[in-house]
Protein: Cytochrome b
Organism: Parvularcula maris
Amino acid sequence: MSTETQRYSSVAKALHWLIAVMIIVQIPTGFIMHNLAFSETKYTMYQLHKSFGLIVLTLSLLRLGWRLTHKAPALPDHMKPWERVLARITHVGFYALIIGIPLTGWLMVSASPLGIDTKIFYVIPVPHWPVPVGEAAESFWIETHEVLAKITIGLLVLHVGGALKHHFVDKDSVLLRMVPSALHSKLRRDSSPKEAH
């Protein structure tokens, strides 16, 4: 099977896009709510942010499990060694971040001296981690959470830029292999992908 005909499974694509959309929404709203004055709106935003963050963590662990048990499509033959290394680093980095960001958020609320309960959408209770509680510990996890979010922004730019380069410059099938089936035919080019030659 050529690299042109290989595509990610429906499960892999669904997890990829669900997590991507939630991360893209979670990061800016996280920075926005952090800078708001305390109010009922800010409290509600935090509770929703925690709920979606825990969903991202769950989906990310499922995605990692799926990835470890299902082989990803091979990279195009024309890719240079440094491009392959960069692609590998980017993917590993994303797995670390999509798990690390919600996990540090969970550790942050666990370390908070406020002791506010965590419930997914106000219904499902989630226990806090048995970590040191106090302002210093909370500040550490807040800072770590924010740093990871900023790194994710940079990695997203790199990832999207790389995908667009593959599609518009290299004219290969890398982007097509992860897009939803409904968009595949629209994005597919009339010319044969580079790796098929």
Notes: The mean pLDDT is 88.
